[in-house]
Amino acid sequence: MSENAGRLREVRPEDAFDVEAVHAWLAPRVPALEGRAAPRVRQFSGGASNLTYLLDYGDPQLVLRRPPHGHKAASAHDMGREVRVQQRLRPHLHVVAEIHGFCQDHSVIGSDFYVMEQLVGTVLGRKLPEGVELSPEQARVLGETAYDTLAELHSIDVDAAGLADLGRGPGYVRRQVEGWSRRFRDARTDDVPPAEELMGWLAGHQPEDVRASLLHGDWKLDNLVLDLSGTPRITGVLDWEMATVGDPLMDLGASLAYWVTADDDEEFGLVSTQPSTLPGMPTREQLVARYLERTGLTTGNWAFYEVFGLFRLAVIVQQIWARYRSGHTTNPRFAHFGIAAAVLLQRAERLAGCR
Questions:
Q1: Where is pLDDT greater, at 339 or 78?
Q2: SS3 category, 100
Q3: How far apart are CA 349 and CA 316, in angstroms?
Q4: For a surface tag, which of 134, 168, 188, 306 has the fewest beta carbons within 10 Å of its beta carbon?
């Protein structure tokens, strides 16, 4: 997954599983594990949804993904979907990991899980890892490469990849607005704004779908495995759990909700999860223009996609905050997610003219 050991920690007690049971299930599926002892297991500290672990056999090193404990949204944490997307997409996109096995037998660890190859490289957090520096030119190339790769993903023929049935046909934009609005109302707690005017604005300003593309659903720098030894390049893409077929501009808008820049207001800067504020990083406007040029798409209503992206991210954060408040997770990373959800909602409301 990553050479950045700072993102690894001992497994939290609430996230532990039966390592011997996993080893017994996995060993017959990976020839290199024949006769080997069970691995040392550590947990990746990044991510706020599915849980990710390093299975350290020395050589090989593998990665296990499983859903979190507690309440889960109906369509989230679908391990089978995540596995299928990667297996079918891998021949069409070189940055997709190889899957070694998918387990649906809950007697092993109590849930579905899968094991994949470790993608070697660096995964960035909010700040650059110790010892890693990026010049303004490297930062520019990194930002552009990230969104060039997203454009490449969106240009894949979904029929040729065998993934067309992930979509539900025309009406993707409408379904997204309705679905995320419903999720927000279901997850809202009394310490965040009701956002009814914002949801009404989204419902009233939604455009028609531009086309049907394969979407990642959570495209951001900390879901990319990077080689930063020279000119930055992507060696792998993680977290395909939200992949689907739909309007690519919705995926772009959702992604750029994470793209905080150095000249953004201080409150928005506090919710940043990636080093997009580094000198040289492209602006959101530059990335949108570059993406549209590479895909041949056009839009006269970019504000809608930007506002939707912020609202969607606010809902994701709010869902996690609701789980934290209810005690379904005790991860201290989530202690301030209620504030983050409010900041994102307020920014979306300002851009929509609701405040």
A1: 339
A2: strand
A3: 17
A4: 168
Contacts of 208 by beta carbon, 8 Å cutoff, 6+ apart: 173
CB atoms within 10 A of CB 333: 13
- Interatomic CA distance for residues 194 and 204, integer angstroms: 18
**Res 187 pLDDT > 90:** yes
The mean pLDDT value of the chain amounts to 92
Instruction: Kindly state the tokens that stand for 111.
Output: 């849930």
Contacts of 147 (CB under 8 A, 6+ apart): 252, 255, 282, 287, 290, 291
**Phi and psi torsions of 297, nearest 5°:** -85, 160
Q: Note the pLDDT tens digit of each residue in 128-183.
A: 988 899 999 999 999 999 999 999 999 999 999 999 999 999 999 999 999 999 99
Position 241 scores a pLDDT of: 85
**Angstrom distance (rounded) from CA 231 to CA 139:** 9
Residue 198 has pLDDT above 80, yes or no: yes
User: What is the dihedral sign for C-alpha 328, 332, 337, 338?
Assistant: positive
C-alpha 163/C-alpha 305 separation (Å) is 24
Query: Strand, helix or coil at 270?
Result: helix
Domains located in the chain, CATH noted: 5-117 (3.30.200.20)
pTM over 0.85: yes
Nearest alpha carbon to residue 331 among 9, 72, 98, 86: 9
